[in-house]
Amino acid sequence: MSSTSSGVLTSSQARADSIKAYFDSITDDLLASLPVAEGLSAAERRGIIARYSAVLEGNFIYWMTGAYLAAKSEEARATILENLHEEVRDCHPGMMRKFALAAHAQPNTADAMAVYPNLSNVRLFIGKLSPAPIVAMMAFFEGFIQRFMPYLEELAEKQGSAERVYTQVHGVCDIAHSQELYHALDAEMALANDSREPAEYLFEGVHLLRALIESMFTDPASASA
Ligand SMILES: [Fe+2]
């Protein structure tokens, strides 16, 4: 390897590390904002599970499909396709619904309306089909989901549920997905060859998704009180 290409690799690795550190810090803040599970009423526990389900069940595969349509690099497309295969083959939306039902937390109209404004913003962002920013959002999302699973499982247990397939599958497998998606992001950034700093063009979807996650966590009854 020439010193030039090794220098490029080093700087690309440093860039990937700093992006991952930024996404991890957003997840840290989101998880720190969660109320302690013991202090929640049954209705509050149900609400968090239901709003999370209202977003994940019908949108994850749709957004990952958007990432597939937008991605330009072979590496990103292969990674995303593998992820989509697994989502569809193993019926992850069905897994999500089963988890919510077992916790008596199937989403209702109020749950759907609580996430609707921020969900719409993420959908419109996906529709722009911007390659690197969509892959960045999905890399962040996979990492967030993986770290959120223990809390989600704890809420469900307190709801009397023993159903753990969804949380176990996503607490383990998504670690690999997340790492692969960072490689995919690196490939898309290399192709985009954008001279701006990542903060100037890469994080729109991540920030919209952060707002959506905050609305999953927020009880609309207490927010309007
Ligand atoms: Fe999944």
Task: Give an overview in words.
- By secondary structure, this protein is mainly alpha-helical.
- The protein has a single domain (about 40-195, about 200-220), classed as Heme oxygenase-like (Heme Oxygenase, Chain A).
- It has ten helices and no strands.
- The protein has helices at about 5-30, 40-70, 75-90, 90-100, 110-125, 130-160, 165-190, 200, 205-215, 220-225.
- The chain binds fe (ii) ion (FE2).
- Fe (ii) ion binds near residues 60, 87, 92 and 170.
Can you tell me the CATH superfamily?
A: Heme oxygenase-like
Oligomer: single chain
- The poorly predicted ranges are none
Helix fraction, binned, reads: over 70%
* Overall form: globular
Number of strands: 0
Q: Please tell me the total number of domains.
A: 1
* Rg (C-alpha, Å): 18 Å
Largest sheet: none
- CATH class descriptor: Mainly Alpha
- Small ligands present: fe (ii) ion
Mean pLDDT reading: 92
Structural class category: mainly alpha
Show the helix and strand layout.
Layout lengths: L2 H30 L9 H29 L3 H16 L2 H11 L6 H19 L3 H28 L6 H28 L5 H4 L2 H14 L2 H4 L2
Helix pairs in contact: 1-6, 2-3, 2-4, 2-5, 2-6, 2-9, 3-7, 5-9, 6-7, 6-9
The structure holds fe (ii) ion.
Fe (ii) ion (FE2) binds next to loops.
